[in-house]
TrEMBL record:
It comes from Coemansia biformis. Keywords: ATP-binding, DNA damage, DNA repair, DNA-binding, Nucleotide-binding. GO terms for cellular component: MutSalpha complex. Residues 1-43, 95-259, 1276-1297 are annotated as: Disordered. The gene is MSH6. This is DNA mismatch repair protein. One of its GO terms (biological process) is mismatch repair.
Length: 1328
């Protein structure tokens, strides 16, 4: 490229012999040469070396040292570039946050073009200095290339304007090498990027600069690589070297130099502007490592606010309130991320990092927003979305009416915050089951002591949770929960919240003692329960949550649960604030509150407080209006006493209802999965009971089936009605298959209706909802016609309950062009279906008619039929006519060619503008048509949801039938008996199998067993056959290790659960009286987070059983007492077993390895099949033992009696323990057993030698008499109460505890007169 004027070197300087002539001046008479590779012209080095002597090199070093010292004294932090040819094209390298080169600044392509920036964001954005990331120690900022300049201040190849007046003489500094920071490189005079030894040079005649090879490299200094050079004319040696250098440095700056100087000054200034990001604090100026830090907010100093540009202020006003959230900021057709968010995008997703509007920036196209949001959410980040709220035309119109500088910005607003627990977009939801966000508030009893004893009521909880995808809210209150938080734990296991919102100030993140306090305090022998709540704030829940509650939350919720702490009263609303905010928001219009919310307002302050905290959090996410206005509020009871079988948290976990714990060695499902090659089962659905039952074909059907599984039925009539429906679908296989096929194609109607209500449903999803409702209606109508007469009562009620949807769907089918909506994803109303659209079309049609009439008039006026309308660029409706046509002066010519000219008539210009505005108005009408259409459809929400609920229940009934058919043979329909005033329950299974393990190993390989507990008739003494002529309600189970005891316990519980769920049972026959609650104490595990040992966990679960079990409960305990010494454990096991048999009378299994416990409960002289306890039956798991080979063969058969040994030595040998150790252990065990037997014989001889009066009274009988006196005192204290409170029949016809439920709870007693009397009658022989 020819050199522009003013950019070449003086003529006299072309003959100088200075070494700088190689870099500053091209040869005057030679054409530009192609640049060659540096290693292809090494022979030129000899010529260069001949021109440089030691004196010249020393002079260069001295000058550079002087310049470096002067630069340092002036405190300049950034280098200034040297003069370059005008044609040099600059590209700023974008850097990694560590300063490494990441790629060119134009890698983002069109997203960085100035067309996308309509803000006028900044007064000045420098364009030359390379974009450099800030390290941890220094947050330098540099500007970006002119390609990214918001001011569109780009450089062209044209000659620049005349240079401005030169500033005060300064030393010119060259541009740093690509990918290098200023100040990096060699030490000494040739070290820094500002050194002359790092000046860029160009090859002779080249129009583009090289990569900036240091001068020291060209001089052949050690450790440098020599580039290729084009030798210049060096015939003159007239001027001293220092003089030539000074004249070069003091040359007048070019416009490019001035721009680079501004860039340097801006970079230094910008470093100071963002210094506050080095010391991050929240809005209260609390640092992250200090107590009470709020990670959601960011403190920005007032000085920083004053220095912000309008765009920066707009960004930081939002970001400072969402510091822990990744903010996607809409600019044009892209979403951009700035500062820390950009760093996250670069480090975790490799998005390109550059500098823009004074901040680090990364960007993604608008079309891929959903994809990247899903990626960020999967990494555990929250995502905020900031959208542009006006178009360019609207912005221009607003600017014309305002003189404020800030009005030049496009209006942007936070439109939503996406979190893992509050997702509503179907494209972001990853599962069909509900994902809950939960708010919890804890209130201590007024005046209660913080150190209440074990078993005392600990606290009450108000809980509100929501499935944001369906807008379904639930309100719950747990009053006077025990110290172990059993009620809270049960709810957490059932709900499994993804986010938990709580009051800041108590335990939890951000308080003075975090989650690790429990373990640390226990390690020092201290108690952490002293951190319980107290004071007036704790009475309404505004004191936060206690340490015990926090431990329960952390131990029960999943590891990915998000914890959100809100400030009391201002962010987590109390009752007055919640009442005021809900009323002022107008969620329900002029109507009344939903019944559940109204009940909480009037009678349940804790539930309303929890709802206030949840609504406040949803408001911060911009979700409250869309969800709350639907009014889907319902009460929730984690333990539905009287209507459902109660399954508490430990039971749901121990029975593998929703998850499987492979760490539990007693878990048969995990063992079967591993044996079958299924690998490790942990936390997933495989191998669980729900995975067996989950045969539903619709998403909303699966969610309903999950709720059914948490709350099986209890009333016999309801169970039998569901069993009738299951049998109906199971008997007609073709009906079940056709119904499954029809249901498979249905979309998620429940979530779709919620999205329509919010007005944010995508057009394809809206069409899917219409099609799904139509298909559902057709399916139910077909079932009604073909099977309505033969259908059982429950199915017939569902078929007749489906509302008529035909008229509603026809109305909306006729409202818009469905074909266009399906193909293009936009709704275009048919004429007559939307008045605003009809009005806009009428206005445009009238204008089009005027244009046609105007064209005809002009053709007639000028006598030219070839006059037509032409549109050129943004100017439409131009009258194009031949150039020969003479037009009046009032016509405004817009453009012309040799042949034609184009005009606007005086009327045409106004009409063209009027039509443009009419088209824009129609566009706005079409944009709002979707919202108007959804609002019309939302009026039928209740009708549509009723149809969805009908289809969901049909799907669940068919799913239970499919699950029943997959159980294998034999499988039966259970017989459900009424209670009829019997004492205790009754369970009888013949050939019962474990439903999940039998499927894994095969039904034929699984050994089935018979189980009978209780009395079938209230007056019978027998158990029902097969030699069980005793009315035992409890089985004492013994047997070898790995003999199948834990599997037997679980399969009994699952058999009862399946029967009360309304499903078939994997047994030959099944007969039960429905139980009211199922308790389990299975497996050995500790809880380190809660600071509990294995034995403490056992005792806590056992305490819950003894406190809440009734004669109609089913209890299973596996090896109770193994976490402590032998004698202590055996004593605890004996006491618990005797209490269950003699005072509660519940059904159950008690598995143990304590041989002495089993022996002590056997009746003397009655053999090994009879027990002293009348409600206890000893049984064991049979096995075959080879003593010589130390091998045991497990038979898995349940037989009457007590196992002789546990055969632990045989199992140890099978596990690979060395035989020598096994033999020594066997010898030691034999000596222990002999010693015990000798002591027992000595006691028996002493007893037999005395007379009858000296015989010892059995310990169990002594305990019974002492307990009888204590219960009489308890009953006497409550004698003035009603029979319901004194141990008589309670509500629902069932017996209440002695002394009434309230007094029994206060005394920490849970006993029943019917069981005590029956036990005493059977224990004491007649006549004594």
């Amino acid at each position: 490229m020819p050199q522009p004027q003013g950019s070449g070197t003086p003529k006299g300087a072309r003959m100088q012999t200075s070494i700088f002539s190689f870099f500053a001046t091209p040869p005057p008479s030679k054409a530009p040469r192609e640049r060659k590779a540096p290693d292809s012209q090494d022979d030129l080095l000899d010529e260069v070396g001949a021109l440089i002597d030691d004196d010249m090199l020393a002079e260069v070093v001295q000058v550079e040292t002087t310049l470096a010292l002067a630069e340092r004294d002036r405190g300049c932090a950034a280098s200034r570039p040297s003069a370059m040819p005008i044609g040099y094209k600059r590209k700023a390298a974008q850097m990694d946050v560590d300063g490494a080169e990441a790629g060119s600044a134009d890698d983002l392509g069109e997203c960085l073009s100035s067309d996308d920036d309509d803000d006028g964001d900044d007064d000045y954005t420098p364009e030359v200095v390379k974009a450099q990331g800030r390290s941890a120690g220094s947050r330098r900022r540099a500007a970006v290339d002119s390609d990214d300049d918001d001011d569109a201040d780009t450089e062209t190849d044209e000659a620049p304007p005349a240079p401005p007046s030169p500033p005060a003489p300064t030393q010119a500094r060259p541009t740093p090498a690509r990918g290098k920071k200023p100040g990096s490189g060699r030490s000494g005079a040739l070290s820094s990027g500002g050194s002359l030894a790092r000046m860029r040079f160009s090859t002779a005649g080249s129009s583009a600069s090289s990569e900036g090879t240091p001068l020291a490299s060209a001089l052949g200094l050690p450790g440098t690589k020599v580039p290729s050079l084009s030798r210049a004319n060096t015939s003159s040696e007239s001027a001293p070297l220092l003089q030539r250098m000074q004249s070069k440095l003091q040359a007048p700056p070019t416009p490019t130099d001035a721009k680079r100087a501004r860039a340097t000054a801006f970079a230094k200034k910008n470093e100071e502007r963002y210094a506050w990001l080095e010391d991050v604090r929240d809005a209260q100026q609390v640092r992250p490592d200090e107590p009470g830090y709020d990670k959601r907010t960011l403190y920005i100093p007032p000085d920083a606010w004053r220095q912000f540009s309008p765009f920066e202020r707009q960004y930081w006003e939002i970001k400072s309130q969402h510091w822990d959230t990744v903010v996607f900021f809409k600019k044009g057709k892209f979403y951009e991320l700035y500062e820390n968010d950009a760093t996250i995008a670069h480090q975790e997703f490799d998005l390109k990092l550059t500098d823009r509007v004074n901040m680090r920036m990364a960007g993604v196209p608008e079309s891929s927003f959903d994809h990247w949001v899903a990626q960020f959410l999967a990494k555990g980040h929250k995502v905020a979305r900031v959208d542009q709220m006006e178009s360019r035309l609207a912005k221009d119109m607003r600017e014309r009416g305002s003189s404020k500088k800030g009005d030049s910005l496009v209006v942007r607003e936070l439109t939503g915050v996406l979190t893992a627990g509050t997702l509503v977009d179907p494209s972001l939801l990853t599962q069909d089951l509900a994902t809950y966000c939960m708010a919890i508030v804890e209130a201590a009893r007024e005046g209660a002591a913080a150190d209440a004893g074990p078993g005392a009521a600990s606290a009450s909880f108000g809980i509100a949770f929501v499935d944001t995808a369906t807008a379904q809210f639930h309100l719950c209150t747990i009053r006077d929960d025990d110290a172990d938080r059993s009620g809270l734990e049960t709810l957490l296991v059932q709900v499994n919240p993804r986010e938990v919102v709580y009051v800041r100030g108590g335990a939890g993140p951000g308080r003075r003692a975090g989650p690790g306090l429990a373990a640390g305090a226990l390690a020092k022998g201290n108690s952490v329960d002293g951190a319980e709540l107290s004071g007036p704030d704790s009475w309404d829940g505004m004191a936060g949550i206690s340490q015990g509650t926090w431990r329960t939350l952390k131990a029960t919720c999943g590891p990915r649960t998000e914890w959100v702490a809100l400030a009391p009263r201002t962010e987590f609303w109390d009752v007055p604030t919640a009442k005021r905010e809900i009323g002022q928001a107008g969620y329900f219009g002029s109507g009344s509150w939903p019944p559940a919310l109204q009940h909480a307002l009037e009678h349940d302050a804790l539930a309303l407080t929890a709802a206030g905290g949840l609504l406040s959090y949803l408001r911060s996410l911009k979700l409250d209006a869309d969800l709350v206005s639907l009014g889907n509020f319902a009460p929730y009871a984690p333990m539905q006493h009287g209507t459902a079988l109660v399954l508490d948290g430990p039971t749901l976990s121990n029975l593998d209802i929703f998850t499987v714990s492979a760490e539990d060695s007693s878990n048969p499902v995990a063992a079967a999965a591993a044996a079958g090659g299924a690998g490790r089962v942990s936390g997933g659905a495989e191998g669980t009971l729900f995975s067996l039952l989950n045969q539903a074909r619709t998403p909303f059907g699966r969610r309903l089936l999950s709720r059914w599984t948490c709350h099986p039925l209890q009333r016999p009539a309801a169970i039998n009605a569901r069993l009738d429906a299951v049998e109906f679908f199971l008997r007609d296989g073709d009906l079940g298959a056709s119904l499954a096929d029809a249901l498979t194609g249905l979309p998620d109607l429940e979530r779709g209706l919620s999205r329509i209500h919010s007005g944010r449903c995508k057009v394809p999803d809206f069409l899917a909802v219409l099609d799904g409702l139509e298909a559902a209606g057709a399916l139910v109508d077909q079932l009604q016609r073909t099977h309505g007469d033969a259908a059982p009562a429950r199915v017939g009620a569902l078929l007749s309950a489906l509302p008529a949807l035909g008229g509603i769907l026809s109305e909306f089918r006729a409202a818009f062009d469905a074909g266009l909506a399906a193909s293009e994803g936009r709704l275009l109303p048919f004429p007559g279906s939307d008045q605003p659209y009809d009005d806009s079309m009428a206005a445009i049609t009238a204008l089009d008619e005027w244009f046609e009439q105007h064209l005809r008039e002009n053709r007639k006026r000028f006598g030219c039929a070839s006059i037509v309308y032409k549109s050129m660029g943004k100017e439409h409706y131009q009258l194009e006519m031949p150039a020969s046509v003479a037009v009046p002066d009032s016509y405004f010519r817009l453009s012309a060619t040799k042949a034609v000219s184009r005009y606007w008539s005086p009327e045409l210009r106004a009409k063209a503008q009027e039509r443009a505005e009419a088209v824009e108005m129609q566009s706005m009408v079409l944009d709002s048509y979707q919202s108007r259409l959804y609002a019309r459809f939302d009026k039928h929400y209740s009708v549509a949801m009723k149809a969805v609920s009908v289809v969901a229940e049909l799907d669940c009934l068919r799913a239970l039938a499919a699950a029943s058919g997959s159980l294998g043979a034999p499988a039966c329909r259970p017989t459900i008996l009424e209670d009829n005033g019997r004492c205790g329950g009754y369970v009888e299974f013949r050939q019962l199998r474990h439903p999940c393990v039998a499927l894994s190993v095969g039904a034929s390989s699984f050994v089935a067993n018979d189980i009978v507990l209780g009395r079938r008739h209230a007056t019978s003494n027998g158990g029902g056959g097969d030699g069980e002529d005793d009315p035992a309600s409890m089985i004492l189970l013994s047997g070898p290790n790995m003999g199948g005891k834990s599997t037997l316990l679980r399969q009994l519980c699952l058999g009862v659960l399946l029967a009360q769920l309304g499903c078939y049972v994997p047994a030959q026959s099944a007969t039960i009286v429905p139980v009211d609650r199922l308790f389990t104490r299975i497996g050995a595990r500790d809880n380190l987070l809660a600071g509990r040992s294995t034995f403490m966990v056992e005792m806590a679960e056992t305490s819950t059983i003894l406190r809440y079990a009734t004669p109609r409960s089913l209890v299973v305990l596996d090896e109770l007492g193994r976490g402590t010494s032998t004698h202590d454990g055996e004593a605890v096991a004996f006491g618990v077993l005797h209490g269950l048999c003699s005072r509660l009378g519940c059904l159950g299994f008690f598995s143990t390895h304590y041989g002495l416990l089993a022996e002590s409960l056997l009746a003397p002289g009655a053999g090994r099949g009879a027990a002293v306890e009348p409600h206890l039956r000893p049984m064991y798991m049979a096995c075959a033992v080879s003593e010589d080979e130390h091998r045991v063969t497990f038979l898995y058969r349940l037989q009457r009696g007590v196992a002789s040994k546990s055969h632990g030595m045989n199992v140890a040998a099978m596990a690979g323990v060395p035989v020598s150790i096994v033999r020594r252990a066997a010898a030691a065990a034999e000596r222990f057993e002999q010693g015990v037997k000798r002591r027992q014989q000595h006691i028996e001889r002493g007893t037999d030698s005395g007379d009858a009066g000296a015989q010892l009274v059995p310990l169990t009988l002594q305990s019974d008499f002492a307990n009888l006196l204590r219960m009489a005192a308890l009953q006497g204290g409550g004698s003035s109460s009603s029979s319901s409170d004194g141990g008589g029949p309670a509500a629902g016809g069932h017996e209440a505890p002695i002394g009434g439920a309230c007094r029994a709870r206060q005394a920490n007693e849970n006993q029943y007169w019917s069981c005590i009397v029956d036990h005493m009658r059977r224990t004491i022989p007649h006549g004594q």
